[in-house]
Protein: Peptidoglycan/LPS O-acetylase OafA/YrhL
Amino acid sequence: MPPLLKTAVRRALVSQPMATAYHGRANGFGALRLAFALAVVLSHTAALGFGRPLLHRVDLGALAVAGFFTISGFLVVGSARRNSVPRFLWHRALRIWPGLWVCLLFTGLVVAPLLYLDRHGTVDGLWRSPGGVLDYLRQNWWGGLRQFGIADLLRGDTPYWHWQGGNTLNGSLWTLAYEIYCYLAVAVLAALTVLRRQLRWLTLLAVVAVFGVLCWNHLQPGAAVWTSGAIGPLPMLGTLEKTYLLWYGFMFLAGGAAELYRDRLPMNDLLGALALGTVGWLAARGDFVGPGPNAADGAFFAPALLAYAYAVLWLAVRLPTMLHRVGRDNDYSYGVYIYSFVVQQVLAKIGLPALGVAGFFLVSALLSLGLAMLSWHLVEKPALRGKDWTPPGLREPSGDPPPGPRPEPGRAADVERNPAAAPAAG
Structure:
């Protein structure tokens, strides 16, 4: 048997815990996040450029969002275990809000005036009128998407308008409210000490319970539990749809449980390949259409979600070493996500769909990546330099150990320098 084949067979039959396979910054999370961000761009290419879904049997964008939440759950729970609750919340705020705020300002103060001027020949009435720029900024400033458009911009001008209606400028931002909700839930669990080793079984129990609800909803769609209606409006976050909170919250919870049990979670190449095969097979059957009121029965079949979560984590530790550098020092995935929708809407308005699906995707991806690079180097990365800032009144005297939980016995004290610990996007 050739040596390479022997090595592959041996690795397929041998398991090692996630704690051993996962090496701090040497992992594929950054590459996966960027791939998921580009998958969202590709999915939106058909919707925004051509007024139709990219695929009819699988929602690529929803699948990418589910992957984002799995990664975020793993990394964010790890952050919460390494830091005090105030420090954890401070880190999350720095990671999600500065980039979002600049994106909103760019949309409201640069994109909107140009589009309004093109439509009306003036910018009078754009700023303070109901549904204008100031309302857009005020409604969306803290995350989520409570005002979708600005004035009458894009109304009747884009393929997406003719397909779905609405003049949404940046529809991608809606998932950020769900991400922030997950952050706050993790902070509560950390404050209650549920994330400690002695009580981590409570999180695993929650995964099992939610998994049971998802299976019940799939088998008994007429008696589905917690899929209709919404929660809220909540302070800052607005209204959260129960369906999306159930599905994406489960993926976040699964990633978080994997971090809590990474000393026992087996990473096995055979299991990883079976998980990927299961996801592919169920996607081909149409079981990954996505959540929501218009989804087909059986959308996001629960076992498929569990297999997908494992596949994402397995890929993170098994992707080639050359991909470990992607996103390790410069993470552009968040910027690609928060800018790509508005980029594609503008491109659709000026006629770029004439380039075809491939051409429209390529141009929009390159422009989004360019804006993401500017966002990272000018906004996100400088903001993250404040992660270690402490208010003067809370600083420890010189020479004393820094506040915060100490690493558990046998657990490495990972330093949170990985920019991949970014918000999930979708």
User: Anything to note?
Assistant: Residues 144 and 174 are 4 Å apart (CA to CA). Residues 85-120 form the longest helix (36 residues).
